[in-house]
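Hey, quick one: can you model this chain's 3D structure?
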Amino acid sequence: MAVKWTGGHSSSILCLNANKDGLVASGGEGGDLVAWGEDGTPLGHMQLEGADDVTSVLFSASCPTKLYASHGETISVLDVRSLKGSLDHFHVNEEEINCLSLNETES
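Sure thing. Here's the predicted structure for all 107 residues.
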């Protein structure tokens, strides 16, 4: 039976991604980002800089707690264990970024 997850977003959810450990991240309108436990409990919540929508979220396959989130023309790198701010961010485009793909190769 489906279970309704509540308590995370106050507006529309635009994207979701899950890591291999069962954590789920969701991005929404106005820079809203939420990390969820596999049981649907919100583990962390933050508003990304600016009011741009979070259009894509993607967990790292090699580091399951590292999360990439696109909002506006920016990609932020976050640690889902502590959603207090971004570890790094990249301004990579002049238009809104709608999709992320990650190619992690060892060097």
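One thing worth noting: The beta strands are 13-18, 24-28, 32-36, 42-47, 54-59, 66-71, 74-79, 88-91.
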